[in-house]
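Batch job 17 of 40 flagged for manual review because the log was empty.
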Amino acid sequence: MHGKSSPTAKKTAFVFAGGGSFGAIQVGMMQALAAHGVTADLVVGSSVGAMNGAYYAGAPTLEGVRKLAEIWRGLTRQDVFPVSLRSFASFLWRRDFLISHDGVRRLVEDHLPYKNLEEATVPVHIVTTDIVSGETVVLSDGSAAEAIVASTAIPGAFAPVVYKNRFLADGAISSNTPIRVAIQKGAERLIIMPTGFACAGQKPPVGAVATALHALTLLIARQMTVELQYLEPAIEYCVVPPLCPLVGSPYDFTRTDDHIARAIKSTEAWIAGGGLEKSGIPGEMQPHQH
């Protein structure tokens, strides 16, 4: 089922939501879709989904997704959230943010196969939030590293990114599952890849960044559910079901291998069961306790 396989094929967007280390789940989803021959005509991503979406847009093949899986398997928390005693001291005394952008920027510069968004193989749109006005700001050209750093800048943990005279931060605040953006960019069919949220924990996670990320994943799930309920009937969509039960925190990078393997398996089963032909919001995205 290729986005361009016939003259009547609808323009298909892959839509990637955020979710910290749970972004590994999207990599498993992408691998199953690519193995099944499903491709996108455009990509929209927010937060960690901006990183995954931008990489897919540069290498939209099964081989490309497998390389992305290898990058994810090598990631540690320090690569993405480099928190040290020194940065914490700086946070207390000098700065209004806790974590340096250097980790995310280095990841993008080391691994992304292009420098500017307009050079991607598939058009890619990165969703950020103007932290002053609260507006959604979509970046489709210019520095890929700056766009992704802005989209992943969780307020309070990372400083906003100054870009074209605006202060930009995590896309999650205004539009975590950037469904509207995909439609504005011409998509007629959406394949949405949420990361889900931890549903197997009995207690909230410990620590400021972990708690902020957990809250964001809950917000994302709720936002997505609401956005899909009000979608125009002409827009086709399907939501790849996230993992359930989902153990751990979006701040924990030790479960990547398990997340990818489980997501490949569950997405293959979903495709085999006709998931690509069905609309609807998976039960895993509705508020629940496992």
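Reviewer: the log was empty due to a logging misconfiguration, but the result itself is present. The radius of gyration is 18 Å. Unflagging and moving on to job 18.
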